Amino acid sequence: MKKTSIILSAVILSLSLATPVFAQTVPATGGVSQIQSFIESIVQALITLAGAVSVAFFVWGGFGYITSSGDPMKLDQSKKTIWYSAIGLAIVLGAFVLSSIVTQLATTAFGTAH
């Protein structure tokens, strides 16, 4: 009981001593375009990372296929790895195309805030 009251007191004290933080105002000329470019860079970074991982698994599956030495279990596992990495790469490319289409539609609908 004493521990919880000490922790509760510390939390209340830290909340009462906190200074308020105000949001930064966005200039009228760059609001929507800044958000759009931020989201585009995040999406592009994630797509690049996902594509690199997919290609890495593709190479891993190819290496396993080459070094399977005719073992049916290893051969089947390597085929599955190659197949799943190809599906992943197709999904990543589809996400890239979809994000490009959405960006173009949003730019057409809302325009750029210059």
Sequence-ordered SSE layout with sheet pairings:
Elements: H1 2-16, H2 31-66, H3 72-110
Can you put this structure into words, describing what you see?
- The relative contact order is 0.12.
- This protein has one domain (27-110).
- The chain is built from 3 helices and no strands.
- It is 79% helix and 0% strand.
- It has 114 residues and is mostly helical.
Shape: flat
Terminal CA distance reads: 59 Å
**How does the helix and strand content classify structurally?**
mainly alpha
Could you state the order of secondary-structure elements as H and E? HHH
Gyration radius, to the nearest Å?
25 Å
Main traits of this protein?
single chain, 114 residues, mainly alpha, 3 helices, flat
Short description:
By secondary structure, the protein is mainly α. The protein contains 3 helices and no strands.
